[in-house]
# Entry
Amino acid sequence: MTHALTEPQQTRRSRRAPGRRRGKPRRRRVWRWILLALVVVLLAAGGTGYWLYSNLDGNLKGVDLDKAIGTNRPEKLPTSGQNILVLGSDSRSGANASLGTGKVSGARSDTALVMHIPEGRQQAVAISIPRDTLVTRPECTATSGSALPSAKRVMFNSVYSAAGPACVVKTVEQMSGVRMDHFVEIDFAGFKGLVDAIGGVPVTVDKAIHDKSSGLDLEAGTHTLDGTRSLAFVRTRHGIGDGSDLGRIGLQQKFMIALLSEIEKQDLLGSPTKAYKIADNLTESMTTDSGLSSLTKLADFARSMNGVDPGSMETVMLPVAYDQQDRNRVVAAEPQASTLWKALRTDKEIPESAKKSPATGGTSG
# Structure
C-alpha cells in the first residue's frame, strides 16, 4: 500500500469573533432557496402536487438511532449546540456499481464529517475524520443482523461495511464523547446525480492531477466537473502528494465550498424542473436518522439553521499521529484530540493547540 500520509492540502475559512457584525451572508440562504423552489414545483404541478410531494417524501430512508444504538450514548448537554455526522458512502452495488474505483467489496464510509453548529452563533465547524484512522469499534449489530463484538485497531472506514451507519455513529460517539443529534448519508450515485442536475461544478487546481486509479486527469487551471469527474476529484489520492488520504480531505473541502457556491448561483425559483430534479436526486440517495426522514422534518431543520453561514465554516481535521506498529495507518493524537472533542461537547471555541497534527507537522485544518 502507498504510504498513507503527507502534508494535507487543507483550506481554512477565516474566523470571525462571535459578536462581530457582518453583512448578510448569501450562502446561508442556499437551503432556503432549495426549499422555496420545491414549494414552487409542487404549486406549479397543480393536481399532481401531492403526488410529487409523496414521491420525494417516499425517497427518504430513516434509521432510528436510539433503537439501533441503544441507551449507551453520551449525554446531550443543554448548551452543546447541534452535532451532525455527514457520511459519504462508496457502495459498489446497485446504481453505484459503475461509479467506484478499485477492487472493494461491499460499502465503506469514504467521507466522514462531524459538523458542529454552536448554540446561538453563526459559524459552524466541520471535523474531518481520516478514513485510515485506527479506532475501537464498539459492539454493534452487523449488516447481516448478527451480533458484532467490539474490536480494537480497526480502520475507521471499515465500520460502515461491517455494521452500517448506526455503528459509525456509535463509534464516533464513543471515540469523541459527543452525542450526534443527526446523521446524513449520501451515496455515490446521489452525489453524481446532484452535480449533473446543477450542470457541473467549477473547481480550480494549482497543480496538474493525474491519477490512473481514480481516472482523474486535470491540468492546472479551472475546470467544470460533471458528476463522474467530481466523484474522481473527491476520491483521488494517488494524483496528489505521495498518495495521502489527508490530501484527499483537502480536495473534498475545496469541492464542498465550490458546490455550495454553484448551488447559490442557480436560479432554482425560476426553474421548477431543475429544482425538482435536484430534490429528487438528493432524497433518493439520502439516508438520515428518523429525526430528519421526511420533507417536513428536513424543512424544519433547515429553517432552524438559517443563521448559519456555510461560507464561513471552519474545516478542521482530527489531529492524528503515525501508528507505531503500522506507519500506513494513523491514530488520534493526544492530547490534541481530547481537547478538540471537549470543545465540541462544551460548545467552546477549539483552541489552536488542539489542531496540531503530529502526522503533518502543522495545523490540522
